[in-house]
Amino acid sequence: EADIYQTPRYLVIGTGKKITLECSQTMGHDKMYWYQQDPGMELHLIHYSYGVNSTEKGDLSSESTVSRIRTEHFPLTLESARPSHTSQYLCASRGDWNTEAFFGQGTRLTVV
Amino acid sequence: AQSVTQPDIHITVSEGASLELRCNYSYGATPYLFWYVQSPGQGLQLLLKYFSGDTLVQGIKGFEAEFKRSQSSFNLRKPSVHWSDAAEYFCAVGSRSNDYKLSFGAGTTVTVRA
Questions:
Q1: CB neighbour list of residue B40: distance below 8 Å, 6 or more residues apart
Q2: With a CB-CB cutoff of 8 Å, which residues 73-112 of chain B face chain A?
Q3: pLDDT 10s digits, B69-85
Q4: Are strands A10-13 and A107-111 parallel, antiparallel or unpaired?
Q5: What pLDDT does residue B3 have?
Q6: To the nearest whole angstrom, how far is the Cα of A66 from the nearest Cα of chain B?
Q7: Which residues of chain B have pLDDT under 70?
């Protein structure tokens, strides 16, 4: 069973609020990822990190930001939430290049 | 650039019948291929993976997949479906040239009827 956790699982928040989605893993993985998933659509990579103090933007442009101060922690922040940010956000981590990614259970964000 | 196509958006299958989900990828060299399953409100769980070697790979829950380089395909199969197999299935590809980042298909939703 994967040891990667996301909080909160569900979040409803008003427009303009600042939010942080938490993601933690206890597997010591260097590589961590954030994906955005809309219903019936593929997962889009929005951020990734290959280690502490390393962050990169993914294939899909996002107004969110991430940080990687500790190996196990990879939070995602939206400074000012908008309804267009409504989506499911999935966090994943990975060890060596020839291994699979492990996913958290996701955070379903609704901005009203 | 790597990409994944899952041609079937939705498949309905009777319990006990066989299931095949299609996946085609676009990538020049040998890719690393994965099938994940997602139940409602949950994250993704790995069913199986292919990196090299035997082109027929076995996974959890009785699933298997076959890598066919000539067809750029990695189709998922199960001989006899159970009601608990109702879920969304994602094919993913990773490659050394893309820093091993995973690209996902749009997914196939499987409905199992009694």
A1: B87
A2: 90, 96, 99-107, 109
A3: 999 999 999 999 999 99
A4: parallel
A5: 85
A6: 17
A7: 1, 28, 100
